[in-house]
Amino acid sequence: MIMKEGANILEEMNDRSREVFRRVVESYLASGDPVGSRTLTRSMNEQVSAATIRNVMQDLEHMGLLGSPHISAGRVPTQMGLRMFVDGLLEVRDLDVQDRQKIDETLNANAHHVGGLLDRVSTALSGVTRGASLVLAPKREAPIKHVEFVSLAQDRALVVLVFADGNVENRLFTPPAGQTPSSMREAANFLNSLIEGKTLSDLSTAIRHEILVRRQEIDGLARDLVESGMAVWEDEGERHERLIVRGRSNLLQAEGGEEDLERIRTLFDDLERKRDIADFLDLTEQGDGVRIFIGSENKLFSLSGSSLVVSPYMNADRKIIGAVGVIGPTRLNYGRIVPIVDYTAQLVGKLMSDRS
């Protein structure tokens, strides 16, 4: 959808100004280099002089759509200019057959669990787009089938959850002091008596209630183990590796200057902390299609000077459960990236629905 301000500017442009603006942006997106008037004279639909084009480019710069990185250089689109181009002039291509085949081949590989499937999705996206990919996995909502505690050392244990859909997940944690094999068995038996048909979030609530009601029935060591083991899942399980990031090296190869590299490092730091996972999903919840965030429009990575193309994916009930996206420099080939992200999101949604 075209922003009101951008729509008004486009309507006020004459055909020549619109063509010059479009060709500057398209050339910049293709090469990353500033575009000069002499370059444009060779590609314009009508015969115009370089001086005439320079005057048009100066007008576009005055309107805030183009900028000059150096005094003697050509022009590049500003963030406002890129936004207007994406909303009003971008021609989205059909998905390339080779891109579709690469994504299909990756996703059709046998995956024993959702994590493995989505990891391959992220790898495929970064490989096809040559950018960095993001895949937000859904929360674990399958009912739990079995819980077990495994002692690894005096200060290390494993809590294992087996889900009804066949997935098995585990976490390392430090158990309370003094644990014995019998207290671990008692803790597991206590949990397994509660889990039938419950999801992880349901179980957490039930545990607190049952510990209060049956406080005298469960040994103190086992009770401490239950509380500490499930705390690991509450604090880490919901967010652990929910945001899968692949293709960091693609961004490092695309950017050359030290300032650009520092922006990319800032982006990676944001991703590693995973503090904005909820915000990443929020970006997609205003609609079920592809959304494009350019530069500082993106509240997740505003310091990186990057663009994000993102789309949610849905389950069989048409509920948004995750998202896929591609990060790259602001001069992304948006016309190619948009259909790739859109197709991948739809395919993931179908696969997730089929698995459920």
Describe this structure in words.
With 356 residues, the protein is of the alpha+beta class. It has three domains: 4-88, Arc Repressor Mutant, subunit A (Orthogonal Bundle); 97-139 and 241-355, Beta-Lactamase (2-Layer Sandwich); 144-237, 2-Layer Sandwich (Enolase-like, domain 1). The chain is 49% helix and 17% strand. The chain contains 14 helices and ten strands. It has helices at 4-12, 15-31, 37-41, 50-62, 79-88, 97-107, 114-129, 181-192, 200-213, 220-237, 248-254, 258-273, 277-282, 334-355; strands at residues 66-67, 76-77, 132-136, 144-153, 156-163, 168-173, 243-246, 291-294, 306-314, 320-329. The strands form three sheets. The protein has a five-stranded antiparallel sheet. A three-stranded antiparallel sheet has the order 4-5-6. A two-stranded antiparallel sheet has the order 1-2. Helix 7 packs antiparallel against helix 14 (334-355) and helix 9 (200-213) runs antiparallel to helix 10. It is elongated and about 90 Å long. It comes from Thalassovita taeanensis. Keywords: Repressor, Stress response, Transcription, Transcription regulation. One of its GO terms (biological process) is negative regulation of DNA-templated transcription. Negative regulator of class I heat shock genes (grpE-dnaK-dnaJ and groELS operons). Prevents heat-shock induction of these operons.
Class from helix and strand fractions: alpha+beta
- How many domain modules? 3
* Poorly predicted runs: 236-241
Largest sheet: 5 strands, antiparallel
> C-alpha Rg, in Å?
26 Å
Number of strands: 10
Which CATH-level-2 architecture of the largest domain? 2-Layer Sandwich
Query: What proportion of the residues form beta strands (DSSP E)?
Result: 15-25%
Termini distance?
Answer: 34 Å
Average per-residue pLDDT, rounded, comes to 80
Strand order of the largest sheet: 7-3-10-9-8
CATH topology of the largest domain: Beta-Lactamase
Shape: elongated
Percent range for helical residues?
A: 40-55%
What is the element string, with H for helices and E for strands? HHHHEEHHHEEEEHHHEHHHEEEH
The helix tally amounts to 14
CATH homologous superfamily grouping of the largest domain: GAF domain
Name of the level-1 CATH class of the largest domain: Alpha Beta
